[in-house]
Amino acid sequence: MQNNMKLVIPSKSQNEAFARVVVASFASQLDPTIEELADVKTAVSEAVTNSIIHGYENKIGEIKIECIIEGNMLKIVIKDNGKGIEDVDKAMEPFYTSQPELERSGMGFTVMQTFMENLFVESSETGTKIVMTKEFKNTSTEE
Amino acid sequence: MQNNMKLVIPSKSQNEAFARVVVASFASQLDPTIEELADVKTAVSEAVTNSIIHGYENKIGEIKIECIIEGNMLKIVIKDNGKGIEDVDKAMEPFYTSQPELERSGMGFTVMQTFMENLFVESSETGTKIVMTKEFKNTSTEE
Amino acid sequence: MQINYKIINKNLIIDFNGELDHHTASDIRKQVDELYSEKMLHNIILDLDNLNFMDSSGIGLIMGRYKTVSQNGGKVCLINANNRIQKILKMSGILKIVHVYDNLNEALDNI
Amino acid sequence: MQINYKIINKNLIIDFNGELDHHTASDIRKQVDELYSEKMLHNIILDLDNLNFMDSSGIGLIMGRYKTVSQNGGKVCLINANNRIQKILKMSGILKIVHVYDNLNEALDNI
Ligand SMILES: Nc1ncnc2c1ncn2[C@@H]1O[C@H](COP(=O)(O)OP(=O)(O)O)[C@@H](O)[C@H]1O
Ligand SMILES: Nc1ncnc2c1ncn2[C@@H]1O[C@H](COP(=O)(O)OP(=O)(O)O)[C@@H](O)[C@H]1O
Asked: What is the C-alpha to C-alpha distance for residues C108 and C101, in angstroms, rounded to an integer?
């Protein structure tokens, strides 16, 4: 199995649910379990929400979501051109949030790490790129 | 209500269903009836299938799908860089198909025209662009 | 997309489950044609009750079966087509050559 | 996302219906806080039975309600959390400050 897709959406909060549905629908080619699909949805929701509230700070910018299927592996890349993360290590610590006043829990990166297999974060003043991968167990091998 | 999205997929036939789901899920912001949603799904399925079998003739190329919501209007643009349509007027006639051996019915454009409000086709040797619009009746006005 | 079938006197009854588009049609076509010729059947009855989606590829599929079956002196008919699918069938003019019956019994009585 | 509520002795019981994310959380927060302060209530019981999705925004929402309610001497608890949601709750450590009960009766007896 090999496939890919690219999705570009504006950083509006109503697109959080849309982004989850699109990635889950794409992932469904891999015959995921309900649990695996929920893992992917939750991780995507965290990354897209971060771009909206932290990256663009509620100004409207573009969020790019790319999914690549290779065998039974799904790779998800989520990119924004927002303000970036100054200290990635600190940002990835559980409970660290720069916006407690928005009732953020600081658990976004922890959720992504727990529900996906690999998480890779690259950030500069011109934006942030998140790469996550997940391997699916019971995959049909048809093309 | 104002929103938009861009989706890029390779011209693989398994992405026909994926494209329908993505557009329908995006359109669901407009509180469509089941009937309206089925109209949109069917029209998208026709246009994407055409890019795959006629535009790219089963070679792999990119299909771009863009959706724009303005008020209660949905505009869908579907583009390929395939071989293009020589005679658009003839292609749009009911029952005309260049590939009867594939069991095509020649009804694709007729379906798009019937289920959407406007259909606009632009084609050259470098590809084909389909623009379709549909107005949704019972739209909630929240942003 | 998945099909189930049964055979009642030389009638091949195909039960569609899922979505019929260009991607799924080619596989379905092969399966139906194989069943029809292998078992030397006469008519085909397509049960659309659990067909959740159909685009013009479905029209092509029905027309194609009509050609094969009528060369063999048989008929094709459809049962349990919902409003949505009737809309596409009407548009295509296919109802001039293929009958739609409400249910299997009606189809078996009249085919 | 939609909430329904009922009040049983100074306990505000909020029934979630739909998906809880950053987009839906801000509206829910406002509604819950208004109900809680307007009607001068004591505890909040969040019924998660019909919550189909929750990400870390849900953790933020629960923590936020915990702060308000405990300043008022009350408690927050959760009922009917499925396995999926329990997984996120555990990860967040929130179970140290917020109790999970199986159902409403158990919650009303123990809060
Ligand atoms: N896309 C991004 N752009 C800018 N900053 C980000 C981005 N994603 C995360 N951050 C920073 O990392 C911090 C931790 O993120 P996270 O673990 O998801 O928790 P939360 O979203 O609850 O704050 C955020 O508070 C923010 O400062
Ligand atoms: N994207 C496209 N690229 C090239 N040719 C196309 C494209 N879309 C349609 N056509 C041409 O227009 C004809 C009619 O299309 P349509 O009405 O959808 O019927 P069908 O797909 O059943 O042939 C096709 O047979 C093909 O020759």
From this structure: 9
Sequence-distant (6+) residues with CB within 8 A of D80 are D47, D48, D49, D102, D103
| Cross-chain residue pair B103–C19, CB shorter than 8 Å | no
Domain of residue B111, residue span: 2-135
Query: Residue ranges per domain, chain D?
Result: 2-110
Locate the ligand 2 atom nearest the alpha carbon of residue B93 and give its number: 17
A-chain CB neighbours of B12 within 8 Å are: 3
In this prediction, residue B137 carries a pLDDT of 87
Q: What is the pLDDT of residue A142?
A: 47
Question: Does A7 fall in a domain?
Answer: yes
Of C21, C29, C92, the CB nearest to B16: C21
Residues 6+ apart with CB under 8 A from C90: none
Do chains B and A touch by CB distance (3+ pairs < 8 Å)? yes
Is residue B20 flagged as an active site residue? no
Span C2-110 CATH architecture:
2-Layer Sandwich (3.30)
Q: Identify the CATH number of the domain in which residue B94 sits.
A: 3.30.565.10
pLDDT in tens, B62-105: 999 999 999 999 999 999 999 999 999 999 999 999 998 889 99
